[in-house]
Amino acid sequence: MRFGVNHTPSVGWFHSWLDFSASDTARDMEQIASIGADHVRIFPLWPVVQPNRTLIRQAALDDVATVVDIAGSFGLDVNVDALQGHLSSFDFVPSWLDSWHRRNMFTDPDVVASTAAYVEALAAAVADKPNLLGISVGNEVNQFAHAPHPAPHDITAEQGHAWAAAMVAAARRGLSGGSSVGAATGREARHGSTPSRTAATGSPTAPLVTVAQYDAAWYDDAQPFGPEHAADHGDATVTHSWVFNGSAALHGALGAGSVRHGEYLLQLAAAWNREPGRPNWLQEVGAPTNVVDPADAAAFTERTIRHVAGTQDVLGVTWWCSHDVSRSLADFPELEYDLGLFTNDGRLKPVGEAFAAAAAAARASTTARAAPPSTAIVLDDVLADGSPRYGTRADCAPGGRFAAAWLSLAEAAADGRGPQVLLRSRIDDAVLRTARGITTIVDVPADLDGTTLTVAHPATMP
Fold first, then answer.
1. What letter would DSSP give residue 168?
2. Options 3.20.20.80, 1.10.10.10, 3.30.590.20, 3.40.30.10; CATH of 2-369
3. For residues 364, 367, 371 and 375, what is the CA-based torsion angle, rounded to 10 degrees?
4. pLDDT 10s digit of each residue in the chain, 462 long?
5. S-S: 352 plus which of 309, 314, 348, 387, CB 3.0-4.6 Å?
6. Closest CA to 113 of 3, 192, 19
7. 128: which residues sit within 8 A by CB, 6+ positions away?
8. In the chain, which residues fall in CATH 3.20.20.80?
9. DSSP 8-state symbol, 329
10. Alpha-carbon distance 355 to 339, whole Å?
11. 233 neighbors 188 (Cβ within 8 angstroms)
12. What is the dihedral of CA 292, 296, 301, 306, to 10 degrees?
């Protein structure tokens, strides 16, 4: 199990890509490595690399490659995010996709082709790096696809699949020097991409390609990007866990529904995976001070990581984030100024100490290598006639009936681990159940009520 940090540059935040400093980057990476992290996730800004639809700046690509090398010099692997996209309440969309030049980023053929060219070029720029963990298509790009974004690029679910498949294929072309990797099957074959490159054990055999979404994909039935987009594309299923989505309001910062939220999302991810053993990656999780008191942040961190470590097929945890945002920068949501494991001037905070200790304990624990939980709770994703059921995701949201049932079982479990999740549409698949180690199946009690809460506005999200 891997433990890493989302790198927030201590000098200039992500605007530092405009005036790249290798020495500032090295100082940050040395600090991150000092707490036992084994990888970082980095975020080159899309408009900086591709300021015009047909211009991809080589100097910007070189800067990204340099960051990967610097991280490697401190023993850190690197995951490179492509489409930023969205970061800490700010959108970074290139001018050729906005205002007078606005076109749908997911469906316009010229835009999709140009975006794919950028993703391919970025992947190619770092493909030969021995410490490359992988390429993520973007950071919570699904927030552009639906309200409450102020200007969404409307799409259907099928158009979302086509876009995700095109971006995954572009990343893989870049990583493989322009050649295809593997033979396409299933959903990815229908959309022109290639299948997951994982060994029989689920461990990645090459740099990962992933698609990252914020949790509306799991909790909002109206969001066109959903669980299948996370589970059907790329080499691992990515989740982002933020308890300001209603979890902390309902359960309290240190309540079970908050400190187990990351674990719960990982079990939801595993349910939608078509391949047993597909890796699941908690790629973002943090202790947001708008709902977690700074005095509770260390305990929140320790408990979150301890619960996640008991979940099966977890690739790793990547904490948000490395450094606080400088108070010299304006207009961030207040929580963004205090999310780091380090202060802006490089002092390790109590939450950073807790992360280091919890990661070390999880690496040494046998729980993370134990057999998966044998009990599974059934999620009703289909109606009696087998047709898709609208409302499934709302049931899974904080306060929903399914979320409440899962948490009740998790808290009652003798080994302290929450149950697996089994889709109703797959309940008769004995081969799948056996492969996942499921021997006991539990339904949501018919008399269980839940209070569904509104998913948080993306503008408050890192």
1. H
2. 3.20.20.80
3. -160
4. 999 999 999 999 999 999 999 999 999 999 999 999 999 999 999 999 999 999 999 999 999 999 999 999 999 999 999 998 899 999 999 999 999 999 999 999 999 999 999 999 999 999 999 999 999 998 999 999 999 999 999 999 999 999 999 999 999 999 998 654 443 434 454 444 444 443 333 344 589 999 999 999 999 999 999 999 999 999 999 999 999 999 999 999 999 999 999 999 999 999 999 999 999 999 999 999 999 999 999 999 999 999 999 999 999 999 999 999 999 999 999 999 999 999 999 999 999 999 999 999 999 987 666 899 999 999 999 999 999 999 999 999 999 999 999 999 999 999 999 999 999 999 999 999 999 999 999 999 888 776 544 333 333 333
5. 348
6. 192
7. none
8. 2-369
9. S
10. 13
11. yes
12. -120
| Strand, helix or coil for residue 37 | coil
Q: Give phi and psi for 19, each to the nearest 5.
A: -145, 65
Coil, strand, or helix at residue 445?
coil
* Amino acid identity, position 446: A
Single out the residue of 320, 322, 319 nearest to residue 348, CA to CA. Answer: 322
